[in-house]
Design a protein that fits this description.
Aldehyde Dehydrogenase, Chain A, domain 2; single chain; globular; Aldehyde Dehydrogenase, Chain A, domain 1; 7-stranded mixed beta sheet; alpha/beta; binds NADP nicotinamide-adenine-dinucleotide phosphate
């Protein structure tokens, strides 16, 4: 596919109104062709008007039509997989094979959401039939379904340029909910963004849907993102990135005359606790596995485990040596953007200033944007005294925390802010301590893993990729998994409606044979 560099607003290829940019190959620090257009508030307005115009027809597509549309997006993504992987590798410095996998995952996700749509459970249909004889007053017929909130603005993430970007889970779940999408492309991978956006737009056209169902904009600086969040026709926002950026957009949305939900996913150190018996029996293996996971994506992953807590004693030295060995053998690798690289270097210096000791470094960097792996160590009391040590350093670094005893391990667990995930490594004899640790972790995280590390690739009904602030801005929802669709839905009740006026899914004869809660009991399908 020849990349045009245009903004994709509805069916139109829109040229630059506010300058252009080229993608950077972070491995070579060279710019890559072609030029990509920047737009501004006028283009956001154009896309939002189209999305609003598309809303009524798109949100009323039948479940079968909508599911088929999502499957066509999946097919279109499959058709461009190699090309998409190649361009993404060029724009990120990460391996081609990784992006073949990420593109396949993105396509699978659209198919999974097609299945969610066909099954119709997300509509949460409920019927409380009329009770004309009820005393002291009769009950009217009440019926409920969930409908889409309205057009959704999605900020593509830098660190997963496909699965958290244009064709990522946010887009798949919003389109599945019946919400038109305006995607704000991340400037770290403009070519990859265009390939994905065209795959989605081609599906819109193939299904004869309103052109406003999907648009992609791009801009220089904050103005375009601010215009999206401020636009009165946008009814929800999703964001993956820094706490600073996420909270700026969140606060902005709450200051609108009509505040809207902003689902941000921001920061997590994914603390890992090794309980004493597991440490004694498998300290080296766990330490090695921890560093291996930490190094995935050059440490630029939301579920990257970056703080490991263990009690000094049997197995601690073995754990420490295994971690040092693995880090010192790790090659420096290209990081995604100059900004992320710079923040990583600064973050490491801040950790040392806050009192952490640098106990191992990876092989030296060859290129400007190479991130050198690092292992720092601190004792539990220092971490308790210095909350800055528990901040995320986005990149290939880890902090080993040595605690004195079980009481200090629990105190350290209590000191953590909200997290996407936490892990416990344990043997049978550790179960008592694990039971005391568990409620502390439940209050602080959306996912708790035992004897493994959180895995980002699973997209299921039980997946939770969320957690209390600052991991996200709304711990009631997940941004990955089949229930992520719930972010874009709201309930509407229909009271006393004649059958002929009801939405098809709520009619008495249940023509689509969908699961419904009738008078408090779930109907089987
Ligand atoms: P970012 O700086 O937060 O930017 C994410 C997106 O939001 C970009 O499109 C950015 O536009 C836009 N944006 C940010 N602040 C904005 C504001 N105040 N107003 C309007 N738009 C705004 O994140 P990033 O570029 O991906 O990476 C920077 C840092 O974020 C990393 O070093 C890392 O610490 C953190 N991060 C964390 C995760 C995680 O999963 N934990 C993932 C990604 C990034 P512009 O590019 O035009 O500024």
């Amino acid at each position: 596919m020849r990349l045009s560099g245009h903004l994709l607003i509805g069916a139109a290829d829109v040229p630059a109104s506010e300058g252009t940019m080229k993608a950077l190959n972070p491995a070579t620090n060279q710019l890559i062709e072609p030029e990509f257009a920047f737009g501004g508030p006028a283009q956001v307005d154009q896309a939002a008007m189209l999305a609003d115009a598309a809303f009524d027809s798109y949100s009323h597509t039948s479940l079968a039509e909508r599911a088929a549309f999502l499957e066509t997006i999946a097919d279109n993504l499959d058709a461009v997989r190699s090309e998409l992987a190649a361009r993404t590798a060029l724009e990120t410095g990460l391996p081609h094979a990784q992006f073949e996998g990420e593109a396949a995952r993105a396509a699978t996700q659209f198919r999974q959401f097609a299945d969610v749509v066909r099954k119709g459970r997300f509509l949460q249909l409920a019927i409380d039939p009329a009770q004309p004889e009820r005393q002291p007053r009769p009950r009217m017929d009440h019926r409920l379904q969930k409908i889409a909130l309205g057009p959704v603005a999605i900020f593509g993430a830098s660190n997963f340029p496909i699965s958290y970007s244009v064709a990522g889970g946010d887009t798949a779940s919003a389109l599945a909910a019946g919400a038109p999408v305006i995607l704000k492309a991340h400037n770290a991978h403009p070519g990859a963004s265009e390939i994905q956006a065209r795959a989605i737009r081609n599906a819109v056209q193939a299904h004869g849907l309103h052109e406003g169902v999907f648009s992609m904009v791009r801009g220089d600086g904050n103005a375009i993102g601010e215009a999206l969040v401020d636009h009165p026709l946008i009814k929800a926002v999703t964001f993956t990135g820094s706490e600073q950026g996420g909270m700026a957009l969140y606060r902005r949305a709450q200051l609108r005359p009509d505040p809207i939900p902003v689902f941000t996913e921001m920061t997590s150190v994914n603390p890992t606790f090794i309980l004493p018996d597991a440490l004694a029996v498998r300290g080296a293996e766990i330490g090695d596995g921890f560093i291996e996971r930490m190094l995935v994506n050059v440490g630029q992953a939301c579920l990257c485990p970056s703080i490991l807590i263990a009690i000094k004693g049997a197995g601690f030295e073995t754990l420490r040596s295994a971690m040092r060995k693995r880090v010192s053998e790790a090659p420096a690798r290209t990081m995604l953007t100059p900004g992320i690289h710079g923040a990583y270097v600064k973050g490491l210096m801040a950790m040392e200033s806050a009192g952490a000791d640098l106990i191992a470094v990876g092989t030296p960097a060859d290129a400007t944007l190479d991130g050198r792996a690092a292992l720092l160590e601190v004792d539990g009391q220092r971490l308790l005294n210095e909350p800055a040590l528990a901040h995320e350093v986005f990149g290939p670094s880890a902090l080993l925390v040595s605690v004195d005893d079980e009481a200090q391990l629990l105190a350290v667990a209590r000191s953590f802010k909200g997290q996407l995930s936490a892990a416990m490594h344990l043997e049978d004899r550790d179960l008592g301590l694990a039971r005391r640790l568990l409620p502390i972790l439940e209050r602080r995280t959306g996912r708790i893993v035992v004897n493994a590390f959180a895995h980002p690739q699973e997209v299921t009904y039980a997946t939770v990729h969320g957690g209390p602030f600052p991991a996200t801005s709304d711990s009631r929802f997940t941004s990955v998994g089949m229930t992520s669709i719930e972010r874009f839905l709201r309930p509407v009740a229909y009271q006393g409606f004649p059958d002929a006026l009801l939405p098809e899914v709520l009619r008495e004869d249940n023509p689509l044979n969908l699961p419904r809660n009738v008078d408090g009991a779930h109907s089987a399908v």
